[in-house]
Amino acid sequence: MATDKEEDFAALLAEYEGVENKKKKKTPKPGDEVKGRIVSIGRDAAFVDFGGKSDGVLDLAELRDGDGKVTVQVGDEIEARVVEIEGPKGGTVLRRLVGRMAVQSGIDARAQLADAHAHNLPVEGLITGVNKGGVEVQVAGVRGFCPISQLDLRHVDNAAPYVGQRLTFKVTRYDEASGRPDLILSRRMILEEEQSVQAAATRSRLAVGTVLPGKVTAIKDYGAFVDIGGVEGMLHVSELGFQRVKHPKELLTVGQDLEVQIIKLDGERISLSLKSLERDPWADVATRFPEGAKAAGPVTRLEPFGAFVEVSPGVEGLLHVSELGRGKPLRHARDAAKLGQRLEVVVLTVDANTRRISLGLVDADASNDDAPAQKAPEKLGTFADLLKKKK
Length: 391
Fold this sequence. Notes:
The protein folds into 4 domains: 32-96, CATH 2.40.50.140; 121-192, CATH 2.40.50.140; 205-277, CATH 2.40.50.140; 285-390, CATH 2.40.50.140. The relative contact order is 0.06. The longest helix is centred in the first third of the chain and has 22 residues, at 4-25. It has helices at residues 4-25, 106-119, 188-203, 285-288, 321-324, 383-390; strands at residues 33-41, 45-49, 56-59, 77-84, 92-95, 122-131, 134-139, 142-147, 166-175, 182-186, 211-220, 223-227, 232-236, 257-266, 269-273, 294-303, 306-312, 315-320, 342-351, 356-361. By secondary structure, the chain is α+β, with helices and mostly antiparallel strands. It has a 5-stranded mixed barrel. 17% of the residues lie in helices and 36% in strands.
């Protein structure tokens, strides 16, 4: 049986080994992204404890705003990338973003860009113009080029709105062999990395019924794609709402923010809905439209058997051809009505369970009289026109 002293020694040994293993796991290499806390701020650099063998050294210029004011303080947590182990100032050299510091020139700027290319560091650049196939970008005083295919996650038809924007890029090519730096950039790589991290967090909480904020990224005839946090879902046209919509662009625009609900998950496919977040207009239709109630609305569909009339947003009723023609045989509802035409109707029957309402024209009973004057009009007009013809 182990004594108390033996148990204490075993606990201390396990703790020591755990700390040592933890240190070994955190030994970085150039290009690694690390996270740590600022432990001190000097005149030229900030020192960061990220759990390595030595503190990280980060140039203070990278932590200043446009007015030269330091934007962090001791205790703040920051992220950076390792550029060099045991640099000239001691410690691990860190860098957050090439090009964020005051514009440099000559050898210093080129050295920064070479580091960025070698260690996969992000760079900050100003888009200064559009040329054939992409945009021109100034990074630390060096002119670079970003192909149009690498400017965003989706294809950009017109790059002009990007001019004047200061954005973050990855260096995909840097060559000084010709004496003039050849700098090729990609913003898409940055966005894909960010999207990947965000997507992992989003997928961990995906579930049918979850309501999430989203942004419309593309609009098609059949629906819209919505970014719900690094992951795209499909918002089908039938799920835009209870009202009938011919095309999603009637309600949505690219870049629009909205809240959507997940209604189906099928592997990588995510089905979204706006309609599920709305109140069902059929919930109280029997109360709002009892038999004999009068209503008015536009014709939304024309079929051989009748015309559909929207009596309330999201609620349609069927005006059968026998009602629409007032006793005159019709081959198609379009022979007596037009899309968008507003009709005065009366509710004949209503079945909320099957979502069906049968309609008749207001005062249609009068058309069944035996008086020879009651002939069906060749073209259906407004309710007022019907009354005039009746007289």
